[in-house]
């Protein structure tokens, strides 16, 4: 009985070792949201997702997809720029954090962000570069950048073993749903 568990774990490591960091091109808002849905479906609880990128790169669209993948209503997701933290309840709780307006370590501390890093809450942090000093060492990092008006480059990477397993599983599931999506709509511009 131990052997199948080891085989499964080895398979995850093999997939993740060969496919991370993971880069893709999103050709639409819907494509970015679909990536988020896949990530949301594989989250186990307690993950931190650090989001990087300029204004309008798709960070909130990605979080909207993650929320939907967790089974919460995506229509309620907005950028928490003025409130700093929005909470959503799906299969797992998600704290959506926006550090855009954080200007000092003291302001960062006053947000209560670190309290979300224990337990089952998934934390998705926009403008994560403004809070690097307090982020957990094991996290999923997603950098989004503009390529054209509707096209974004998305690079996904990890900084620890838990996030590595989760992102490897997301990559595997995304690849299989992307094949289905391309078959249904014709060739994808990836």
Strand adjacency order, main sheet = 1-7-6-2-5-4-3
Number of domains as seen in the coordinates: 1
CATH class: Alpha Beta
- Estimated radius of gyration: 16 Å
Count of helix runs? 5
Low-confidence parts: 1-18, 179-190
Roughly what is the average pLDDT, rounded to an integer?
83
Return the structural class.
alpha/beta
Range of helix content: 25-40%
Element order: H for helix, E for strand? HEHEHEEHEEEH
- Give the overall form: globular
- Multimeric status of the protein: single chain
Mind telling me the CATH superfamily name?
A: P-loop containing nucleotide triphosphate hydrolases
Q: Any idea of the CATH topology?
A: Rossmann fold
Description:
By secondary structure, this protein is an alpha/beta fold. The protein has a single domain, classed as P-loop containing nucleotide triphosphate hydrolases (Rossmann fold, 3-Layer(aba) Sandwich). It contains 5 helices and 7 strands; from the N terminus they run H-E-H-E-H-E-E-H-E-E-E-H. A 7-stranded mixed β-sheet has the order 1-7-6-2-5-4-3. Strand 6 and strand 7 form a beta hairpin. Helix 1 packs across helix 5, helix 2 crosses helix 3 and helix 2 crosses helix 5.
Quick summary:
The protein contains 5 helices and 7 strands, in the order αβαβαββαβββα. The protein is of the alpha/beta class.
Structure keywords:
190 residues, Rossmann fold, single chain, 39% helix, seven-stranded mixed beta sheet, 7 strands, alpha/beta
